[in-house]
TrEMBL record:
TM regions (residue ranges): none
Superkingdom per UniProt: Bacteria
GO terms of molecular function: metal ion binding
Species this protein is from: Corallococcus interemptor
Oxidoreductase among keywords: no
Official protein name in the record: Lanthionine biosynthesis cyclase LanC
Binding site for Zn(2+): C292, C344
GO cellular component: plasma membrane
Gene3D superfamilies linked: 1.50.10.20
Pfam families on file: LANC_like (PF05147)
Keywords assigned: Metal-binding, Zinc
Length: 443
């Protein structure tokens, strides 16, 4: 596509990196001494290995493919003051071409067109010479067509559903059609919400139930609480819409109902007892202490959603849950049920969640937990195996370098803990939730 040049002008690329600054003057590294040195060494090794590797054909998407690597090389280049914009442009181009070649119809954030659109719009805010309208315009149209479908076929989640589509649309608030798209998303969330005595909940549609097995085995429906596939993604979108003044009265009612239902599942113990999902009203637990399905991700995203909403009561309650989870993180072994350092279900994602909460709240418990989980991440490094010493699930015969499940995401998390550069890329995983889209003038 014409908007994705393989290499932006070299002089401009060098100037962008020389002048790059953190998004926040208050962002400081939490790692120090030998731990910081190890984190920087590991991150630099990953970037060097990936920058020196030949370009290969891979999926076009954000989570596993070219779009995610474009995001990675731009963020890593700024944090390390190195120039990888050639790689950024090439991965964007290959992502766009890959979706075209596949005749891709998926519109989700992590596996579909919205992910490419989010990366393109996100990067164009910092690199205004990057013309992305040729890509984002068709993505807008694809989402608009999808919003006409009834019965609604998608979950409310971040990965494949409305949460992710809406997160992309929020990067396009300057476009005249975007407010209308977002209001239609509110309508879909109203139509698909199920009232209960405890509040509102959103079921997985039948085609998504296959994530957990044969749909016929779940006659009472599935209600997912994890960040990747569940309700927190929809609530985060609603919080952001409220912050932007989109259908505030309707959005507020959905937020009240959704938070109330989530709170009904916490339990009476010291630590929040959010299950992975419910089969009807029966909770199903998961041992992972992670971003994707565990309590670190659930409580952090609920706090970000309440903060964007501006609801002091739910902010306080979600923060108390998150602090309890951080205390648990200091007590528990990190590698249950698997040894993984990735962002999705591994130690790097958990570390980054706590890091974000520390910078947002200043609470020392989050800093302590973040440092602990960065140390867990570094302990999994095996130099010589995989990019920078990291392999998917620590299997030497299955090294992976993608954003969500591989070395790219691990490197970006380590750079967030070891440098003074705020990781604005992490909003695509709801590790953070900015109150407004990045403006063209922001660095």
């Amino acid at each position: 596509m014409r908007g994705f040049r393989a290499a932006p002008p070299r002089a401009q690329a060098r100037g962008l990196h020389r002048g790059a600054t953190s998004l926040s003057n208050t962002w400081k590294p939490v790692l120090s001494g030998p731990t910081r040195a190890r984190a920087l060494e590991a991150a630099e090794a990953i970037v060097q290995d990936m920058a020196g590797a030949p370009l290969v054909r891979r999926p076009p998407d954000l989570a596993k493919g070219h779009a995610g690597l474009a995001l990675f090389f731009e963020a890593a280049g700024r944090a390390l003051d190195t120039d990888h914009l050639d790689r950024v442009g090439e991965h964007l181009r290959r992502s766009a071409e890959g979706f075209l070649r596949a005749g891709q119809t998926k519109v989700g954030l992590h596996g579909g067109l919205a992910g490419l659109g989010w990366v393109a719009a996100h990067l164009s805010a910092r690199h205004p010479d990057l013309d992305v309208e040729e890509v984002c315009g068709p993505v807008d149209e694809a989402i608009a067509r999808e919003l006409e479908l009834r019965p609604w076929p998608h979950p409310c989640d971040l990965r494949a559903g409305l949460g992710g589509m809406g997160l992309y649309a929020l990067t396009r608030l300057h476009h005249p059609s975007t407010p209308g798209l977002l209001e239609r998303m509110v309508t879909v969330l109203e139509e698909t919400a199920e009232p209960t005595a405890q509040g509102l909940r959103w079921p997985l549609p039948p085609n998504s139930v296959r994530l957990y097995g044969d749909p016929q085995a779940f006659p009472r429906g599935v209600y997912t609480l994890g960040v990747a596939h569940g309700m927190p993604g929809g609530l985060a979108l609603l919080g952001a819409l409220h912050a932007h003044g989109i259908a505030r009265e309707r959005v507020g009612a959905l937020l009240e109902g959704g938070f109330a239902w989530m709170a009904s599942l916490v339990g009476s113990g010291e630590h929040p007892g959010f299950p992975h999902y419910l089969h009807g009203d029966t909770p199903v637990v998961d041992a992972r202490f992670s971003w994707c399905v565990g309590t670190p991700g659930i409580t952090a995203v609920l706090w970000w959603a309440a903060r964007a909403w501006g609801h002091a009561g739910w902010q306080d309650r979600a923060l108390a849950w998150a602090e309890a989870v951080a205390r648990e993180g200091l007590e528990r072994p990190p590698f249950v049920p698997r040894r993984s350092a990735n962002l999705c279900c591994g130690t790097a994602g958990t570390a980054l969640l706590f890091l974000r909460l520390f910078h947002a709240t200043g609470r020392p418990i989050f800093e302590e937990a973040a440092v602990r989980w960065f140390e867990h991440t570094l302990s999994l490094r095996q130099p010589g195996q995989g990019p920078g010493g990291y392999c998917f699930e620590q299997k030497p015969d299955r090294p992976d370098d993608n954003l969500q499940f591989g070395a790219a995401g691990i490197a970006l998390a380590l750079l967030a803990g070891a440098t003074g550069h705020e990781p604005d890329w992490d909003e695509c995983l709801l590790m953070s939730l900015r109150p407004r889209p990045l403006a063209k003038t922001e660095a």
